[in-house]
Amino acid sequence: MFQDLRYAIRTLLKSPGFTLVAVMTLSLGIGMTTAIFSVVDAVLLRPVPFHDMDRLVMVWETDRASGTTHEPASLPDFLDFKERSRSVADFAALIAGEANLNLDNSDPSRVATLNVTERLLPMLGITPAVGRVFTAAEDKPGGGDVVLISEALWQRQFQRDPNIVGKSVRLNDRPRTIVGVVPASADFGILQVLRAADYGQGYAQRDARTTVDAFAPLQGDPQRLPRNTHPLFIIGRLAQGASVESAQQELGAVAAQLEKTFPDDNEARGVAVQGLRDIVFGPIQPALVVLVWAVGLVLLIACVNVAHLLLARGVARVREIAVRSALGAGTARLARQHIVENTLLLFLASALGVLVASIALRVLLVAAPADIPRLADVAIDARVLFVVLSIAVAVGFVFGLIPLWQARRTDLQTVLKAEAGRGATSGRESATARSILMAGEIALAVVLVIGAGLLIKSFWRLQQVNPGFDVQQVVKAEFQLPGSRYPTDFRQFPNFKEILQFNASLLERASALPGVESVAIAGNHPLDAGFTNSFVVIGREAEARDWPEISVRRATPGYFRTLRLPLVRGRLILDSDTTQAAPVVLINEAAVARFFTRQDPIGQRMDIYGTPRTIVGVVADEKIHGLNEAAPVAVYLPMSQAPFSNGTLLVRARGDLVQIASAMRSIFREVDPSLAVFGVEPLRDTLAQSTGEQRFMMLLVGVFAALALVLSLIGIHGVLSYAVLQRRKEIGIRVALGAEPGQVVRVVLGEGMRLTLIGLGVGVGLAILFSRSLASLLFGVTATDLTIFSVVIVLVAAVSMLAMWLPARRAARVDPLVALRHQ
Questions:
Q1: How far is Cα 376 from Cα 162, in angstroms, rounded to an integer?
Q2: What is the model's pLDDT at position 91?
Q3: Would you say 194 and 205 are in contact if contact means Cβ atoms under 8 Å apart?
Q4: Could you tell me which residues come within 8 angstroms of residue 257 by beta carbon, excluding any fewer than 6 positions away?
Q5: Residue-level pLDDT at 423
Q6: Which residues 6+ apart lie within 8 Å of 665 measured at CB?
Q7: Cα distance between residue 319 and residue 308, in whole Å
Q8: Torsion angles phi and psi, residue 116, rounded to 5
Q9: In sequence order, which residues have a C-beta less than 8 Å from that of residue 346 and are 6 or more positions away?
Q10: Do 129 and 181 touch, CB atoms closer than 8 A?
């Protein structure tokens, strides 16, 4: 065995080109495949840390008037569902929010929160890492100021203090006692749930990498949360024997009864029951399936390339095998020698492949869109690595031992007498096998490159979409004012003096920053959809029954200049539109097209928040739901006439945006040192993040396609180079008999182009099938885009010609005397 190992090392070192190409090719295939399959395994295949997830459902409310099907529910509706349902055995509700976290000896920070009913964590099967869950008494109004913190916050702020239970933190200036720690594995997909909602998405829309750090009791009070307010996300667990369909039928009947009982609050309201697994994993599944197919093709191409190399190398060693056999070596002895050589080769490739997988996985986790759930659980999976290595080992052993099998079938005298040790039979069989592999390699490359081309064109189309506002040289900073110091008594609306004074001070300081051109405060930045509200046009109340809710945007006068949002007609919000002035409102072009198709909106009055407001202007549309969504109907209210506790400071400035962002943080500390500011970044970065999934898929499939092209180029070049070497005597005779160099080139290119055309034909057919799985990921491009298919065919043909050109030139320069003497 040691003798075989020493011989294998010498053999591989004598063929450094073969060894390097084989090891690099296999390691890339093994590494990239392991990385992608590890992500898929952690996200989709590995069991979730919850009790029987397939029985967990989301109970959404629907609105026939607006056509929405994923709305949060009201507290009274939740209580009625809980009391009357039999198909859903257990119910829980939650409200997502954010809070300023204040700790001793540290700056204030912003944390994502969940206010939950006491049944949520037990229903999910989540056990605290430390402490306990909430009690039923703590979930009642006035039940106590307690909180559960996340394991991440426990680690970050308390260094995993084992005595954490009983300590106190301040959330929005309110002291709360810590009663337990929620483990990191307890993420049940809250971000995906929030992003699936028609409104109320909160921090999930602004920053999809947010983790919930504080859980507080919901302490639902119907007086504070009446039936016409819909902030609750409802999760239920199906009863034994119940299904999503039976729960839908039962709760639909309950919703119909509530609509009759409370016509003012529940008119047109229904229920939609949806499996929680479908919400959490459904949106990302098509993208991950595409990546699995793509990386699988890369691994297959890598294996085909190695098969090429092993076949060619094996045929070249048929004479060696024949000599060994003639000297008495048995089949088992020869097989062991080949096994040792292949094992050494595969060991080197596997070791390098693990390193490639580790690096690729780190890059993936950084570049991956935040929509992918359970990213924190992703690591190199030993089972995945074992399967991928098994495939590579199988390919190596099968194609490495084929020449041995061929040699044993061939007469020794024929092999020893044959030119260059090549038996006729083995040569023809190996040539046929290499031709099939070459055509297959081209076909697989075509599939990947077409997929990448479709995604690239889709992303390019998305980037050409006009968002309606200018993000260049604009920085945003978000904040939320705690109610303890900035009260919002709606009996005094809109005279929230503390909030109005804070906004004025912030604008004054921001305007004084060096290089600032304009500043504004908005309720939501232009890529945050915010919330919607019902409204009526005064005098057209009957029509409002069929109208959807309208997106409400609140802004100071500088908003339109800061974002360069064009005025279409009328006027913009002015500094004079204060609490003492007549209430006014702007609408966007989408609202004009939807509600004022045959009349001039200027001067008409809309009732919003129970206040009649005069329409004074029309502005262009903003794509607040993202570049791939149509601009919604929207209204713009003066911030002074509709102040709330949340807001976004927007600054347009010349110069370095990093310095501007730092200065913005400083002015927040000047105005309110205990206030946490968050989401501070250039608006162009926010826009880029909104297309993160499309960019991720384009880059990843593009990398796979480039690898496929390079591997195909190497494979084609290797096959034809070896074919020229094998036919050197034949080519020498042709040249000796008068063949011109151009004729020799045409012979070699003709053989290569024949296989290329076969590969292109098969590849286009497979690509048509493969591209259908991309349809849900494309924007503005069909899955069978003729331009992309045509460009890819030309590109792959050109790459194939490039790979064939060097072997063809080498064949044309064969000296017939040298070739015949060598043979």
A1: 23
A2: 96
A3: yes
A4: none
A5: 44
A6: 477, 677, 680
A7: 19
A8: -125, 150
A9: 26, 389, 392, 393, 396
A10: yes
Structure tokens given for 522: 């908005």
How far does Cα 268 stand from its chain's mean position? 35
What does the alpha-carbon distance between residue 85 and residue 236 come to, in Å, rounded to a whole number? 10
User: Is-contact 310 715, C-beta < 8 A?
Assistant: no
Distance CA 114, CA 134 (A): 13
* Predicted TM-score (pTM) above 0.90: no
Long-range contacts of 103-112 (CB under 8 A, 24+ apart): 103/157, 103/169, 103/170, 106/157, 107/676, 108/674, 108/675, 108/676, 109/676, 110/480, 110/676, 110/677, 110/678, 111/153, 111/171, 111/213, 111/214, 112/203, 112/210, 112/211, 112/212, 112/213, 112/214
Alpha-carbon gap, residue 82 to 90, rounded angstroms: 8
Q: Are strands 584-588 and 611-619 parallel, antiparallel or unpaired?
A: parallel
Q: Which helix (H) or strand (E) element contains residue 322?
A: helix 318-326
Dump the DSSP string for 689-731.
Answer: HHTHHHHHHHHHHHHHHHHHHHHHHHHHHHHHHHHHHHTHHHH
The first and second tokens of residue 818, run together, are 């040298």
- Tell me what pLDDT residue 769 has: 86
| Other C-beta atoms lying within 10 Å of the C-beta of residue 489 | 9
Encoded tokens for 67: 């056509």
Residues of the chain with pLDDT under 70: 105, 205-209, 311-322, 325-331, 333-334, 370-371, 395-397, 399-431, 433, 722-731, 735, 811, 813-823
Res 425: pLDDT = 43
User: Could you tell me which of 116, 69, 81, 71 has the C-alpha nearest to residue 228?
Assistant: 71
Burial 535-560 (b: 16+ CB within 10 A, else e): bbbeeeeeeeeebbbbbbbbbbbbbb
Question: pLDDT (tens digit, 9 = 90+) per residue, 404-444?
Answer: 665 565 555 555 555 544 444 445 555 676 778 788 888 98
| Structure-token match 């001070």, residue found | 505
Tokens of 743: 């004729």
Instruction: Extract the tokens encoding 422.
Output: 């090549």
- Under DSSP, is residue 521 helix (H, G, I), strand (E, B) or coil? strand
Is 124 strand, coil or helix?
Answer: helix
- What pLDDT, on the 0 to 100 scale, is given for residue 404? 63
